[in-house]
Amino acid sequence: MILYNVTIAIDKVIEDEWKSWMSEVHIPDVIATGQFIDHKFFEVLSHDDPRSTSFSIQYFAKSMDNLQVYQENFAEKLQQEHQEKFANKFVAFRTVLQSVV
């Protein structure tokens, strides 16, 4: 199992709009690529910046092949849509993890 984790710190001013867009548009678009079998959407509670809130969106793939297909064929377009909609209002970083048990 591969976990593709996207952590985003979003400006509090647009937090509600962003959460709605993520839940209704972006996450469904990512899942619709067919490369992930599940996802989770968490708020990061240990975040200390009073101007932003951090979230972790976790996408679960069966294999690295699925993640590579996503990254090669879909990621750029979906990330660009996010960038255009919320320019200068967020910071994001991505992590790939593999289950060891």
Descriptors for this entry?
alpha+beta; four-stranded antiparallel β-sheet; 101 residues; globular; 3 helices
Could you explain the architecture of this structure?
This protein is an alpha+beta fold and 101 residues long. The chain has one domain (2-98): 2-Layer Sandwich (Alpha-Beta Plaits), CATH 3.30.70. The protein contains three helices and four strands. It has helices at residues 15-31, 64-73, 75-85; strands spanning 2-11, 38-43, 52-61, 90-98. Strands 2-3-1-4 form a four-stranded antiparallel beta sheet. Strand 2 and strand 3 (52-61) form a beta hairpin. It is globular. The relative contact order is 0.32.
Low-confidence stretches: none
Mass-distribution shape: globular
> How confident is the prediction overall: mean pLDDT?
96
Count of structural domains: 1
Content of β-strand? 25-35%
Total strands: the figure is: 4
Query: Which bin fits the share of residues in helices?
Result: 25-40%
Alpha-carbon distance between the two ends: 10 Å
H and E order: EHEEHHE
